[in-house]
Specification:
It is a single chain. The chain has about 400 residues and is α+β, with helices and mostly antiparallel strands. The protein has three domains: about 140 residues, no CATH class; about 80 residues, no CATH class; about 130 residues, DNA Cyclobutane Dipyrimidine Photolyase, subunit A, domain 3. The strands form two sheets. Strands 1-4-6-5 form a four-stranded antiparallel sheet. It starts with a helix and ends with a helix.
Length: about 400
């Protein structure tokens, strides 16, 4: 796996740079071989599915990404296949960058951060900033050593998609004379990887929204039919992977009750999405739509969505199927986390959804005034309102018939 190639993708300025990356990686030779050999084509399609497909496995992505041409081809395929695959590629390549930098020295971390426009500074020896942490009963003063720092503006750029998490908010770090000081090297690596993800995502989306770029890339793809085959295969894989089989015996999706599980009869993700537009509060509806679009939700956003659906009575397998749309979906981990939140694992405690005030603090609330203190209350009010409307309609029809 070439860190240099990954950085070139993030720092490309236009389509010409992408073409140079593709040519320089040896991708044309790989595509030509895949066009002539069924074995080579099968292997390429398998590698592209590992990097861009609906199932995420870090080990499989690493194995597929050991060949630089595959990474270059996956970039073209993602742009042509659409936003969902751009989301997946940017997330998964950022995981590779994080893995590479985790074993690298400070010099390499600094160089990558500079290339991404958010330079990190590191002290080779000693501390850039020290703070008193505690004083014990013998008068010993414990101090925290901060070896890394970033300009405040650069920190905000790198952490913009992390700032909803309390541990990444500025109050969690010393800020002095325009710099944010960071103690832990692992957090610096995470910041750089997050910046990488956002930069790649923006650049690939820009290409995907450019008519001129798409026409040129389509011409490139027409030269090698295997690219079109890869796109078709990926779209089919996503369609089959995220489609839920209906549960048997479901007579109605919504139970018109005032308390208890409200959506226990939902039989598919499609049905859940339809109900979301009718009964869910704006915050949860936005999370559902983002996930269905293949976007990567933060930890708190996932918690908010999962606990809302669990407490609404949605079948856990349907919730799991919804999360299959996440670009970093791992079934084993996702199932465990959902079952843990439902009180089936670990502490056996069933978690409640965040309150509206907490949702606002975390930046998840879109600001719409719903008049409730918890998103789950909005759901039950919407269901009761729908029930009353249905009854009024039935009475009106009855009167009209008589």
């Amino acid at each position: 796996m070439s860190l240099g190639l990954l950085i070139r993708i993030a720092t490309m300025r236009d389509l010409l740079d992408l073409a140079s990356i593709v040519e320089g990686s040896g991708a044309p030779a790989l595509l030509s071989l895949a066009s002539e050999s069924d074995d080579a084509k099968s292997r390429l399609l398998d590698d592209l599915t590992k990097i861009l497909g609906p199932q995420y496995s870090e080990e499989e992505v690493i194995a597929a990404a050991t060949r630089s041409p595959v990474i270059a081809v996956s970039t073209i395929v993602a742009v042509l296949a659409g936003k969902r695959f751009v989301n997946a590629l940017s997330v998964r390549l950022s995981k590779l960058v994080e893995l590479e930098l985790s074993g690298a020295g400070d010099t390499e971390i600094i160089n990558v951060s500079r290339a991404l426009g958010t330079p990190v500074e590191a002290s080779p020896r000693g501390c850039m900033l020290e703070e008193d942490a505690f004083v014990d009963d013998r008068g010993f003063v414990g101090r925290i050593c901060y070896r890394y720092r970033m300009k405040l503006c650069h920190y905000l750029m790198a952490a913009k998609t992390l700032l909803a998490e309390p541990s990444w908010k500025l109050v969690s770090y010393p800020v002095h004379r325009g710099y944010v000081y960071i103690r832990d090297r692992g957090r610096v690596v995470r910041l750089v990887a997050e910046r990488y993800k956002n930069v790649v995502h923006e650049k690939l989306l820009a290409l995907a929204s450019s008519t001129e770029a798409l026409e040129i890339l389509k011409g490139f793809a027409s030269r090698w039919k295997v690219i079109a085959e890869a796109i078709d295969a990926l779209r089919s894989a996503v369609a089959s992977y995220v489609t839920s089989a209906p549960k048997q015996g479901s007579s109605s999706s919504v139970r018109y009750i005032a308390q208890g599980p409200a959506l226990e009869n939902v039989s598919s993700v499609d049905e859940l999405a339809e109900l979301s537009s009718k009964f869910f509060p704006p915050c949860i509806r936005k999370l559902v739509n983002s996930l269905l679009g293949g976007e990567n939700l933060s930890h708190h956003e996932r918690f908010a969505l999962a606990t809302f659906l669990i407490n609404a009575g949605v079948d856990l397998d349907i919730i799991l199927d919804l999360f299959r749309h996440a670009p970093d979906f791992n079934e084993r981990i996702a199932r465990y986390q959902i079952e843990h939140l439902a009180g089936l694992r670990g502490s056996r405690k069933k978690y409640l959804p965040y309150s509206c005030s907490t949702m606002k603090t975390l930046g998840i609330c879109p600001g719409d005034e719903c008049g409730v203190k918890n998103p789950i209350v909005y759901l039950y009010r919407a269901i009761r309102s729908s029930r009353k409307g249905r009854r009024r309609s039935e009475r009106a029809e009855s009167v009209g018939a008589s």
